[in-house]
Amino acid sequence: MQKLPEIFNRFKSDIDKEMQSIISAGNLPLYDMLKYHMGWIDEKGNKGDYGKGKFLRATLCILAYISTLKEEENEKRLSVMPLAGSIELIHNFSLIHDDIQDNDKQRRHRPTLWYIWGKPQAINAGTTMKVLANLAITRLDNYDISCEKQLEVFRIINESCLKMLEGQYLDIEFESKSEVSLDEYITMIERKTASLIEGAILIGAILNLEESDMKKFKKFGNFLGIAFQIRDDILGIWGSQDKTGKPHASDILKKKKSFPIVYTLNNATDKIKNNLLKIYESKKINKKQMFEVLKYLEDAQAKKFCEQKCRHYYELAVNEIKDLPVSEKYLQSYYEISDFLLIRDF
């Protein structure tokens, strides 16, 4: 398993503490559900470290902030921390709802929230997490951040979240469509995944810069987010369960029209296309059908195509780094994160 870049470990504890502080505001069992999802407790309430995710979006938010500080400003006064916590909570709210919509029973090697507490309460838990994420923005008052900046942050976060939900709508809609083009798929993941990664970078940078300085950050975040999701689609079919925490070929078993499937449907013979669609129309895909789909993907060289596309968007993202208005000493961190996302196996 690849190691996370150093900057992830540098701020992971601070991000974790911020989110715990945000969630600890409530005392109903509802909040224990959030703590369980975040990996702070088990389903019986016992404290521990049960797997907390990578904190990618929060780390990108902090990096954008510290890399745009003026030299004389003190990095240790991390006024960005409430935003790092907020963006990570929004991401986790989306995961809770995503697990419900996909009927996923496992995440991060543990039973999903809805599988333990049921879908109605899991919906409540996910929505609660989203509200707490918005309220966390008001913590910027403690760092003397102007109301104007707070409004900018609120707008960026919620526009990013709206795009993410639009992407989720399209993703679900694709499940019932026989024809999905590659361009349509890229448009969907720009919304579903790239929007929140882009938003995380923007809210970190906007505390120190003006809106006119955001163009390069937007392009970098957009390209990075697309590369991230294509890599995720590769892992969703060919990833190792020990590393991803999900069953082998889980996206096939869930009948998701991910990038490898969309590519194959657009490039296979009519016979294979019809067979593939017929399998996806089944009430439930069995192991035999799963291996049939894997064979169709292999014949179409879908994995190779997706890896090439992932690298294409990675290279577009990396090309933007040199022009970002950031301190030179942090450039390496941008490159390391981009490199990790290209080859990650979890």
Strand and helix layout:
Elements: H1 6-23, H2 29-38, H3 56-66, H4 81-102, E1 106-107, E2 110-111, H5 113-117, H6 119-136, H7 147-174, H8 182-206, H9 215-238, H10 241-244, H11 250-253, H12 259-267, H13 270-280, H14 287-299, H15 302-321, H16 331-343
Antiparallel strand pairs: 1-2
Helix pairs in contact: 1-3, 1-4, 2-6, 3-4, 3-8, 4-6, 4-7, 4-8, 7-8, 8-9, 9-15, 9-16, 12-13, 12-15, 15-16
Describe, in plain words, how this protein is organized in 3D:
68% of the residues lie in helices and 1% in strands. By secondary structure, it is mostly helical. The protein has one domain (6-343): Farnesyl Diphosphate Synthase, CATH 1.10.600. A hairpin with a 2-residue loop joins strand 1 (106-107) and strand 2. It is globular. The mean pLDDT is 95.
Assigned CATH architecture: Orthogonal Bundle
Please report which band the strand proportion falls in: under 5%, 5-15%, 15-25%, 25-35%, 35-45% or over 45%.
under 5%
CATH superfamily: Farnesyl Diphosphate Synthase
By secondary-structure content and strand pairing, the structural class works out as mainly alpha
**Helix proportion range:** 55-70%
Query: The CATH topology, please?
Result: Farnesyl Diphosphate Synthase
Mean pLDDT: 95
The number of domains: 1
Q: What is the count of DSSP helices, taking H or I runs of 4+ residues?
A: 16
Number of strands: 2
Low-confidence runs of at least 5 consecutive residues: none
Largest beta sheet: what is the strand line-up? Answer: 1-2
Quick one: CATH class?
Answer: Mainly Alpha
Spatial gap, N to C terminus = 7 Å
The helix/strand series, from N terminus to C terminus, equals HHHHEEHHHHHHHHHHHH
Radius of gyration: 20 Å
Shape, per Cα inertia axes? globular
